Amino acid sequence: MPYRAIYGWVFVMNSKPQLSSAPPRGMRDFYPEDMILRNRVFDAWKTAARQFGFQEYDACVVESLDVLIRKGGEEIVRQIYAFQDKSGRDLALRPEMTPTLARMIAARQNALSFPVKWFAIAQCFRYERMTRGRKREHYQWNLDIIGEPDVSAEAEVIGAAVHALGLLGLTPQDYQVRFSSRALLADLLEALHIPAERHAAVFLALDKLGKLDEPAIRDMLADAGLDAHVRDRLFEIMTLKTLPDTLAILDRKTPAYTAAERLLDLLANGPAAEAVAFDISVVRGLSYYTGIVFEAFDRAGQFRAIFGGGRYDNLLADTGGRPASGVGLGFGDVVVSEILADKRPSAADPSGPDLHIGFMDEAQCACAMRIAAAHRADGATVDLALHPEKAKAFFSRAQKNAALEALYIGPDDLAADTARVKNMRTREERILPL
Ligand code: HAM
């Protein structure tokens, strides 16, 4: 059949336009079978957040563009889906939740009692170059503590994320959490006589370690004003293996060093002990981080970060609030779902109804509805047939639906005032008075 493609629409000549059945590139549809894994992940996030004493919040997906924009060349800002509404307001689909959280906290800063511990599951949009584990839309568990200057806050958010991974059946054999400190890195840069105003550009370049090749990173460092000798020294620093190794360059324990040391101590005595390691090369690509930064990766090294976060001590003030420190993380659904699917590709569907009810003729419909209503009132999940059907078709549907029990009512049952409820797993039957 002749057709023409115009702006992505396919027109079959002399008929209606045919829309593509696929979602826009990088966006996802969730069919019922996809919701099983998604709900498993969301349930683990919510359970862990509540077990760690975090309260749930939410916000609009559309945010004012100026809340999200920061100067300084961060990738995330270039990836924003921005648009104008019909009145010319500059808006965007949020690429992350943290600026919105800061805006919400700033709006109620006088009324809230700190530290605030909040969590959200936020759908975020980024115009990304797509790879495995990277989409243009994802759900992100955000877990933040506002108003706690001590690294106990970092220990708690990392502990909660590790707990959520445990609830999903993942152990430290599957992943590792690596942390460093931007404040410590700033001390090291200072020891190399790199002035503070160049640190942000240096952080952005160093965040590309392992993502870009070395010459590309050297070029970025040259653009940040570092000469060849300093660039060499910096690459040496990025190979340091332990926290004490940094003392050779610092020559004393700075406050940032002491904070990192204390965090290592807190984590070593907690549930995340086996999962966590110091790694100087963790820098993070978001410019608002000021202190500890951390990321979790799968041990096989197949994916981008499972989660990432850190301390941001200036964001509240930059968003119009009073200065307050923040610590938090974002944990996306895409990477962890891929890891879980790889580990257990055919997870059994546990989500069938308790009871599937069907009937042979219209005459049994009212009785079927009454039984469904009684079971639902008792708290059972019931899938009620919407029209009469043959017994064979009904039982095959009940089987596909993974129903625990099936009840099929015919004229004889109505006459006898009882019917047989069949357990679809054991095939045993019980008699139910109608
Ligand atoms: P982020 O590192 O940009 O941090 O994102 C956090 C996590 O979200 C990533 O580790 C990854 O799991 C997931 N993620 C991000 N982008 C994508 C994508 N395109 N496709 C799939 N998954 C993705 C933040 O967004 C910070 N706001 C987190 C934070 C909260 N820091 C403090 N509080």
Oligomerization category of the chains in this entry: single chain
Q: Care to count the β-strands? A: 19
The appropriate CATH architecture of the largest domain is 2-Layer Sandwich
CATH class of the largest domain: Alpha Beta
The rounded Rg comes to 28 Å
Low-confidence stretches: 1-6
Q: Shape from CA axes?
A: elongated
Task: Enumerate the strands of the largest sheet in spatial order, edge to edge or round the barrel.
Answer: 4-8-9-14-13-12-10-11
Sheet with most strands: 8 strands, mixed
Kindly, what is the distance between the CA atoms of the first and last residues, rounded to a whole number of angstroms?
Answer: 57 Å
Output the CATH homologous superfamily of the largest domain.
Bira Bifunctional Protein, Domain 2
Query: Compounds present?
Result: histidyl-adenosine monophosphate
Percentage of residues assigned to helices: 25-40%
Q: What's the number of domains?
A: 2
Give average pLDDT, whole number. 93
Q: How much β-strand is present in the residues?
A: 15-25%
- The helix-and-strand class reads alpha+beta
Count of runs of 4 or more consecutive helical residues: 16
The CATH topology of the largest domain is given as BirA Bifunctional Protein, domain 2
Q: How would you portray this structure in words?
A:
Strands 4-8-9-14-13-12-10-11 form an eight-stranded mixed β-sheet. The chain has a five-stranded mixed β-sheet with strand order 16-15-17-18-19, with helices on both faces. Strands 1-2-3 form a three-stranded antiparallel β-sheet, with no helix packed on it. The relative contact order is 0.12. The N terminus is likely disordered. Helix 1 packs across helix 13 and helix 7 runs antiparallel to helix 8. The protein is 35% helix and 22% strand. The protein is built from 16 helices and 19 strands. It has 434 residues and is an alpha+beta fold. It is elongated and about 95 Å long. The protein folds into two domains: 311 residues, BirA Bifunctional Protein, domain 2 (2-Layer Sandwich); 79 residues, Anticodon-binding domain (Rossmann fold, 3-Layer(aba) Sandwich), CATH 3.40.50.800. The structure holds histidyl-adenosine monophosphate. The site of histidyl-adenosine monophosphate has 23 residues, from strand 9, strand 13, strand 14 and helix 13. Histidyl-adenosine monophosphate binds next to strand 9, strand 13, strand 14 and helix 13.
